[in-house]
C-alpha cells in the first residue's frame, strides 16, 4: 500500500465496526485529516445493519444487501483494518489488547462493539439457547436453524425469549420465512409452533398502546402463543422454565433479551453502568478517561438514558466523528443531545410495517416500502463507494492543526524534509533497537554470532553432511496491516526453501518503513517483524540479522538459508517431471487479481479475508507430504503465475503438460475479479508466456484463462507425482489443511510442438 504523503502524527483506533464507526469511517474517507491515521479493529469483515436484519431473515434481502463490507469501507477511508477480537485496554500505555496479535497503540480510542448476551445469569441458557446478540454472529446461527427446521420432519416448536421490538420483529420474520420454506418443500406450515416469552405484562412494553395492540393482534392472528409476566429462569436441552414454574418443550430457543457490556470492559477500570456498559458524557467520552470514546449499544449516556437500538448508534456517528476530530486536533469538544422522541419502523415479516413514535402509531404495506427506501438509502452510503483522490494538505501545515510536543515537532519536520539519505536512509538506532528488543526470535545451536551480538554479520555453522539452500524474496506491502504483511512476507520467502525439500535454518531481513514520528515508525516495524518472527519461529528458522531503511512504502523481504541432505537425489527440483505423472496444486490461485480489486474497492471483504488466510498458510507440511509420496518435481507458485512456474518445470524436465481448466482451485472471488478486468501490473509480463500454449487461440475466451497468468503471493506448491500415488497424497494434503488441493493436469511425453502446454476444459 502506498504510504501517505504526510507522516503519521496521531492514531485514532476504532474498536468494533458497529453502526457509529461505519459513519466515522465514511466521514474520514470523504474528508481525511493529514497526519491522522485510523485503525479499525474488528472481529468481522462484514457488519450487519440491524434495521434490515429482520428483512434478511424473512428472505426479502440477501446477505450483501444487509451487511456493510468493512474491508471496502476501510480502504475507502484510508484506514487500517485489523481483523481481531479486542480483549482489553492497557490504559497506562495507551494500547488496545487483541486476542491474536500484538497490542495496538492509540492516541484516541473509540469503542462501538454493541452488546453481548448476558446468558450466564440464566441457568443453562449459555449452552441451550441460541443468542441473537452479538448480531454479527447471528447469521451463522440463523442459517443453522434454517437447516435444522428443514431437516426436522414433523412439528418444530420455536420459543423466542424477549418481547421487545427486536424479539417480536425477529419472531415474525422467522415465522414468515420458515413457513415459506416448508411450503416450498411441500410441507404444512402448521408444523411450526411459535411461543413468545415476555417478562412484563405486555409485548413491546416501551412502545405506545396503539402499537402494542397492533402487534398483539398480529401475533394472535399468526397463532403465536404469547406468555406474559413469564421471565425465563432456566433453560435445559429442549426445554425452558419460567419464574412461575411453567415449563415448555421447545426444539429451538432463541434469546433476544438481557444484553450487557462485554466482560473484558470490567478489567479496563472504565466507569460502567449496572449492565456493564461504558458510562459516557454528552461528548461521548468515558467518564473516567477523556481519551476513550464509546457509542452505540456499548455506551450508556449518563444524561440521556437511551434504548439499545441501532438507530441511536447510527445517530451517534456524526457527533462521534466530530469529537474524534476535535480531540486529535486539540479543539473543544461539542456535546451531543439525542432526540427525545424517535421513529421506530417495525416490520411484521410480510412486507408490512408499523410506525411508532411517542404516542403515534400507523401502519401499512406502504410503511414497509418507506422503511425499505430509508434502509436502502442508508446502505448505499456504504456500498456506493468511489475512490476519492484526497489531495492532502501540505505537510508544513501539519503542526498548526495537530498539537505536537516540541520533540514530536522536530521528528515531524525531519520526516517531512525527506532525509538526505547519506545515512543510507537507515531507521534511527533508538527506534530500531527498541522495536527489535521486543522480538523473540528462536535460537539455533548452529548460530555462532547472531542478532543479539554487536558484530557486522551473522556466523552460522553448517552441520556435517548437509548442503546449504539459499533464497531471497522482497516485496512491498499490498495490505494496510503490518502484522499480517510480516507473516505473509516471511511465509512467501520460506516457500522456496520448502519447495526444494529443505529445512529452513536462518534468515536475514531487509525492510523499508515510511518515515514519521519515532513512536509510529517503531510500532509499524514492531508489528511487521512480530508477524514475521512468529512465522520464522514456527519454521524453526532463526532470524540472525537484517537491515531497515526508510522508504516511501512499507516493504519486507528475507534472505533465507536452508539445509538439505548432501545428496542430490533428496533435492526436489523442477527438472524431474516424468510423462505419466499428474500435476498437483496445493492452494487455490487468484491473489493477484483479488488484491488489485481490493485496492479499487471492487473485492468483497470475505474474499480478501480468505485470501489472506491462504497466504499465511505455510507450505512446509505440504512439501514434506509431497516428498514423502515421491514427488518428482516441485515449485512454489509466486510472481510468474501458474503457467510461468509450470513452464519452469516442463522445460528442464523435457516434457509437455496438459492443464485442466475446470480443475483449477480458485480463491473465492478470483473469477469475478478477473472477469471484471482487475489485472495485476505483473500480468502483462506473464501473458507473454502464452506462446507456450498449444491451443491458446481456442481457449483465450475461457473465463479462467487470465488466471493462468495471475501472479501469486505466498501461493501453493505445484508438484508432479506418479499417478498411482496421487489420490493418497491428496487425501493426506487435505487432512493437513490444504483443503483445496487438486489434480490440475498431467505430464506428457515431449512432442514436436514448440508449445509444450495444452489446455483442456
Ligand atoms: C433481531 C434484532 C433486530 C433488530 N432490529 C433493529 C431495528 O430494526 N432497528 C434498530 O434500531 N435496532 C434494531 N436492533 C437493535 C440493534 O441490533 C442494536 O441496537 C445495534 O446493532 C447496536 O449497534 P452497535 O453499533 O452498538 O453495535 P453492533 O451493530 O452490534 O456492532 C458491533 C461491532 O463490533 C464488533 N465487535 C464486537 N465485539 C468486538 C471485540 N471484542 N473486538 C472487536 N470487534 C468487536 C462486531 O463484530 C461488530 O462489527 C435489533 C436487534 C435485534 C437482535
Task: Summarize this structure briefly.
The chain is α/β, with parallel strands linked by helices. It has 23 helices and 37 strands.
Structural description of this entry:
- There is one protein chain.
- This protein has 761 residues and is of the alpha/beta class.
- Helices cover 33% and strands 23% of the residues.
- The protein contains 23 helices and 37 strands.
- A six-stranded mixed beta sheet has the order 33-35-32-36-34-37, sandwiched between helices. A five-stranded parallel beta sheet has the order 5-2-1-9-21, covered by helices on one side. Strands 11-18-12-13-14 form a five-stranded parallel beta sheet.
- Helix 1 links the parallel strand 1 and strand 2 (36-42).
- The longest helix has 21 residues, at 518-538.
- The protein starts with 9 loop residues before the first strand and ends with a strand.
- The relative contact order is 0.10.
- Flavin-adenine dinucleotide binds at residues 15-20, 41-44, 47, 50-51, 53-54, 85-86, 112-114, 132-136, 166, 169-170, 256, 262, 296-298, 308-311, 313.
